[in-house]
Each structure stands twice: as structure tokens, then as C-alpha cells.
Design a protein that fits this description.
Rossmann fold; CBS-domain; 15 helices; four-stranded mixed sheet; alpha/beta; five-stranded parallel sheet
């Protein structure tokens, strides 16, 4: 490939991105008039938000439905052709439909439109044609701005599908924020992979109960070493009157090696240790461990009582690398 050919390819890519980006910016500056009302209708829906579309619009509808479902709004995609052969039964009173067609005249959507009208199911339409059949039948009309498709012949769905996808994301995020959707709720729908790991709470990964290497402040170091060896965390928490007052690590053992067996746990421990709360994110705990070059953190409640222990290996196993 010559340099001129590479430059031509890059120029095409840049043109496509600018064309689509300018269209999205234009829509941001002039959102459809019914946008806020559509969000409120979605929030008021007792059932599911049903997305439907054919062809490229169908692919976009699937993605928008997935985004709704993962951000706290029950949603499903229904293929319009399958709907005409029995799947209309999936669209019930109490649901809300979002039907997508850039032309607004997609024949495959006609049975869906008739069905939602028959059962008085609210309908949001996303289309580029304000006078189309679909838009005229809709309760909430989300009109896409007029913008050229990004392909050289001006016909392949490019800008129009990008606009639809962006508008769907805007609907989902606006609904999510109005609903007050929280990070811990988000993790409920994203338990796997790195995203789920990033949203894990310390309480979900920590060791508890008899697994904790806890010793009294007056315990002789000969006995403290046995506890540290049995629990296998390379650390012991020193407790006085129920509260964590110090931590003994391998480093503390080395610093006190000369007179170690003559001392008790309270005399060897590092006072005022770094700790974490059970409701903090595991990613935050890992940051504390990495930043301070330690491998374990005691988890304490508001009264500094130890309720768990989180080891660096627990975070790595959860995918927090």
C-alpha cells in the first residue's frame, strides 16, 4: 500500500467521523421536543420497555434495549417479523414500546403499531421523517435531525444509525439518572468481567469470622507467631477492648527480631494501621495496598472493630489487576 493510498483511507475515515460527529452535536443542541416526556413515560412504565426495528434499526434497537436493561429499566427486544407470527404476545398492557424506523414507513412494524394501539400501550417513535405513518401513530415523537449519511453514495445507514444509537443512549442515561440508579445496583447487572470486579465491595471479597488472625495486645509473641502461621495471611491484628489498635506484619517481626520472644503483641505491633470499610470498593482497597506496599488490610466498622480482612490476592482473583 502506498503512502497516497494510506492517506486516502485516513481521509475517508476522518470524513465519516466528522460527518457523524457534527450530526450528533446538532442533535445535542436541539433535542426532540418530546424527549423529556418520553423519559417520564419510561419511568412511569410498570412493565418493560420494548424495543423493535428491522434491519440496521433492529441492531440499534437491540443495543438500546440492552443498555436500558443494564441500567435498571427492564427491557426486551422484539423482532417485528417474529411479532407478526406470535411474538406480539410478548408486548403487554403495562409495557411501553420504542419503535425505530428512519423512514417511518417500515412495513414490518405495521402489526406492532396496530397491536399497541389496540391495547393502549404507549409508543415512542424514533424516525427521521416527521410526517411518516410511524410518527403520526406515536404518543412520543423523537425526530432525528436531517443530516447526510456518511457514505460516499449517501444511502447506506451510517449517520442515521449513529444518531439513533446516541439518542437511545441519551434516553437510557437520562432515565437512569432520574431513577437514582446507584453503582451497587449497576454491579447487580454486571457481575462478570473487569467491570464487575471494579464495582465489587470489600465485604464481598473479605475473609471473616475464624479466618481472621486476631490476637490480644498482651499475647506473648510465641503464641502470636502460631496464630500468624495458622491463618497464613502474613499479618496479625492486635485487638484491645474489641477495637483494632495495631497490626503485626512480617516487617514488624524483622524489626524486632533481636528481642522478639521477650515481647508481647502490643509491643511489636505498628499502631494506627491503615484500614478499610466493608462498604468501600475493593478497587479502592487495592489502591491503598498498592500505594503503601502492603498485601493485606483489616476491614473495620465505625468503632474500629475488625469485621474482616482483605488480601491483595483476593483482589487479583476477582479480576482487579
Amino acid at each position: 500500500m502506498t503512502d497516497d493510498q494510506k492517506a486516502a483511507i485516513r481521509a475517508t475515515a476522518a470524513r465519516v467521523l466528522r460527518t457523524e460527529g457534527e450530526a450528533v452535536s446538532a442533535m445535542a443542541d436541539a433535542l426532540p421536543e418530546d424527549f423529556a416526556a418520553a423519559v417520564e413515560a419510561i419511568l412511569a412504565t410498570q412493565g418493560r420497555v420494548i424495543l423493535s426495528g428491522i434491519g440496521k434499526s433492529g441492531h440499534i434497537a437491540r443495543k438500546i434495549s440492552s443498555t436500558f436493561a443494564s441500567t435498571g429499566t427492564p427491557s426486551a427486544f422484539v423482532h417485528p417479523s417474529e411479532a407478526s407470527h406470535g411474538d406480539l404476545g410478548m408486548v403487554m398492557p403495562g409495557d411501553l414500546t420504542v419503535l425505530i424506523s428512519n423512514s417511518g414507513e417500515t412495513s414490518e412494524l405495521r402489526d406492532m403499531v396496530a397491536h399497541v394501539a389496540r391495547f393502549d400501550i404507549p409508543m415512542v417513535a424514533i424516525s427521521g421523517k416527521p410526517g411518516s405513518t410511524l410518527m403520526q401513530a406515536a404518543d412520543y415523537r423523537l425526530l432525528l435531525p436531517q443530516a447526510p449519511e456518511a457514505c460516499v453514495i449517501g444511502m447506506a445507514p451510517t449517520t442515521s444509525t449513529t444518531l439513533t444509537l446516541a439518542l437511545g443512549d441519551a434516553l437510557a442515561v437520562a432515565t437512569m439518572e432520574r431513577r437514582g440508579f446507584l453503582p451497587e445496583q449497576f454491579r447487580t447487572f454486571h457481575p462478570g468481567g473487569k467491570l464487575g470486579a471494579q464495582l465489587s465491595k470489600v465485604a464481598q471479597l473479605m475473609h471473616v469470622g475464624d479466618a481472621l488472625p486476631l490476637v490480644a495486645a498482651d499475647m506473648p509473641m510465641s503464641e502470636t507467631l502460631i496464630v500468624m502461621s495458622e491463618k497464613s495471611f502474613g499479618i496479625a491484628g492486635v485487638v484491645q477492648e474489641g477495637a483494632l489498635v495495631g497490626v503485626i506484619s512480617d516487617g514488624d517481626l524483622r524489626r524486632n527480631i533481636a528481642h522478639l520472644m521477650e515481647r508481647n503483641a502490643g509491643q511489636v505491633a505498628t499502631r494506627h494501621p491503615r484500614v478499610i470499610g466493608p462498604d468501600d470498593l475493593a478497587a479502592e482497597a487495592m489502591g491503598v495496598m498498592s500505594g503503601n506496599r502492603i498485601t493485606a488490610l483489616f476491614v473495620v466498622d465505625d468503632a474500629m472493630r475488625p469485621v474482616g480482612l482483605l488480601h491483595l490476592h483476593d483482589c487479583l482473583r476477582a479480576g482487579l489487576a
